[in-house]
Amino acid sequence: MSEENLNNEINSEDGVVLANTSLPSIGFLVSFAIYDGSVKMDHFVQTMRDDYQEEHTRVEFNQKFKNLIPNARTGGSAFSLAVKSLQSKSKKVVMDDPEDPLTNNPEKMRVKQNGEYGYTLQWSVIPLERNREYALRKTREGFVDGQPKKQIYESTVYRIRLSSNNANSFARKWSKEYRAYIWHAGIEPNTNELRNLVIVEPMKASSIPEDGRFMRLAQERLRDAFVQACTCLDDDKLRKKVRTVLKESYGGILPHASSGANYFIHDPRKERLAYLERMQEVVTKFSDMANETNTDAMWVAGEAWWDTNVEGDEEIPIPSHSRSAMRILTYGSSKAQLDDIKVMYIENMQGAQAKYYELVQQMLKNGEIDEELLNEKRKEVVKALGKATIDLDTETVSKATAAYQEVKTQLSGRLANVWTPDERTSEAERTRINMRISRLLSFDIEPVTE
């Protein structure tokens, strides 16, 4: 397309959405998708640094990217992810003769009716204390003589826990040393003590494990997964980081019917573009290193059973069929697009108001008004309205608030009834209560700075 035709497109009534971020607009449409994957944090950062340091120093790289690359997990967060490595996605057929002295089939189950002795086996994790202690539950399914339908037997035979109350503080200290190693050329911390924080043991204290070999394998796998979680950048951490940057840091507005992976960023002077493009570099590098070449996160269930590895079988991880990506497009170059952006803002403001008034209604229903909580939630609505005033105009804000005038009137009457007649006897007291109600239900826009 020639430059003349391009300018005609941009200045048309409908305008266009283009990947050329240097074109005039009032902001950007940013979309992202982060898919399953994990990559060793030190390798990830070093690879990005190697690409960047051809023209810049280590200090400059850290200044530009350290706040954009989320830290690896630590403590309870890493542990809660690692325990998923013991869950089984599929069921495993186990042939188990009840006449065997070491049988785990006292019910004499059969894989099929009148078939061989055995059952299908599956492991799942049950939380006992969030981020600190879990139970490993065994579920066996099979047919029992005399019963026409399949029977299910469940038991929790193993406890998974962190070694002590100091485990979290040690893990945080270890992670601090690991970050210093990555970003400031410190000494890489040893993972042995980190591994020993994780314990798998019989559910009942001082009892003999049902299967000592299995328990040992489970503990080794869990420890490997815990170290991996503490030293890797995973998809969930990166996804939350991108959303925080777009929504919280830059006040991104969700377009119509967006699932939360698309945001409009108001930036007519393109002051945020360089930061957004660096965030895009991080996502692209994650796509190359985590989605394409390293899809073996231990907490992603494999197609084969992990406990058969000791016999020589190789676990096959679920392949990642999608690549993570982040796209930045110019938006707001025409009247039609400006009108669309105003609708986005109006829907965002109305959503904030609706949540607030629903909270007021719930408090009225419960018969108790928590003014401290309401004041905190009210500030969030005022912030949304104030941002719209700065980004667009007061007319757009008025359209967003007009729809709730009737709601305000109804709630004002109900709030007035919260106070007893004795409290409303004097004119001065009635005036004070009315001001109190108006303060709770109105959103006087306060100054908002970008």
Oligomer: single chain
- Structural class determined from secondary elements: alpha+beta
Helix content: 40-55%
Q: Could you describe the largest sheet, including whether it forms a barrel?
A: 5 strands, antiparallel
Q: Which strand order does the major sheet show?
A: 3-4-5-6-7
Number of helices: 14
N-to-C span: 36 Å
- Strand coverage percent: 15-25%
Give start-end ranges of low-pLDDT stretches.
1-16, 309-320
What is the overall silhouette? globular
Radius of gyration: 29 Å
Q: Mean pLDDT score, rounded?
A: 83
Strand tally is 10
Helix-strand string: HEEHHHEEEEHHEHEHEHEHHHHH
Could you characterize what this model shows?
It is a single chain. It is built from 14 helices and 10 strands. With 450 residues, it is of the alpha+beta class. Among the domains are: 156 residues, no CATH class; 107 residues. The strands form 3 sheets. The protein has a 5-stranded antiparallel beta sheet. A hairpin with a 3-residue loop joins strand 4 and strand 5. The chain is globular and about 85 Å long.
